[in-house]
């Protein structure tokens, strides 16, 4: 399993870092078998697995439940689990308790926290407590309601300047990695040059030190809207639907189950049924 130090070295050596999300056992297994560097149990879980419109409804229990499942599928891959909506905003002590729970119950190597500003003292505290923190800037879905929707961030000079400043502060506070979501590629490149810690882009162009995609978007699993920045490497949903449709037909017309799918008892035992 790689370490936070390995990711920093990968950046120094211009070796791209690959992250993908996973929320259950088979996805964790597939990601580990495919050789990704990091698995993120993202709260995007709420949208692509649980069917919510956003990530606000996702709870700590959801994160623990799915984090454990992903971990069982990927015991040897660096695992990051998202701190869900709200839990970081009551106090640093309460947030620390939640982060400890995520680390201990899922076996994660790190937690991810959206935002800078108010989150800086918390990131300091978690890092001091031995909990590595991934930061998340740009489009931060947990505050989409305040941002006015899922929109590209950092497009104006002043917004870009703020984001660059936030990235530097996050690095100072101890974040070992920064996710940059949905920002202009020039800004992502600029940030990546100005911080020592690796950046992981999603909708942030090729200048980031690594990339992350949501599992269901990447493999085409679901009917949800897929953002412009996603590349779909397969479309498994129609295959699944087709399989279930064929199964339905075969049960109806008694093609399934056939002899190969059934068990047989000895004839004398069958006759003894009535004896
Ligand atoms: O929840 C998630 O999947 C994320 C990634 C998009 C970075 O936070
Ligand atoms: Na997330």
Automatic annotation (TrEMBL):
UniProt protein name: 3-methyl-2-oxobutanoate hydroxymethyltransferase
GO MF entries: 3-methyl-2-oxobutanoate hydroxymethyltransferase activity
Co-factor: note: Binds 1 Mg(2+) ion per subunit.
UniProt EC number: 2.1.2.11
Major subcellular location class: cytoplasm
Function statement: Catalyzes the reversible reaction in which hydroxymethyl group from 5,10-methylenetetrahydrofolate is transferred onto alpha-ketoisovalerate to form ketopantoate.
Organism domain of life: Bacteria
Keyword Metal-binding attached: yes
Cofactors named for this entry: Mg(2+)
Pathway(s) of this molecule: Cofactor biosynthesis; (R)-pantothenate biosynthesis; (R)-pantoate from 3-methyl-2-oxobutanoate: step 1/2
Family: Belongs to the PanB family.
Cell compartment(s), UniProt: Cytoplasm
Binding-site residues, Mg(2+): 43, 82, 114
Top-level class of the enzyme under EC nomenclature: transferase
Keyword terms, alphabetized: Cytoplasm, Magnesium, Metal-binding, Pantothenate biosynthesis, Transferase
Reactions accelerated catalytically: (6R)-5,10-methylene-5,6,7,8-tetrahydrofolate + 3-methyl-2-oxobutanoate + H2O = 2-dehydropantoate + (6S)-5,6,7,8-tetrahydrofolate
Assembly, per entry: Homodecamer; pentamer of dimers.
Residues that coordinate or bind 3-methyl-2-oxobutanoate: 43-44, 82, 112
Keyword Cytoplasm: yes
Catalytic site: 181 (proton acceptor)
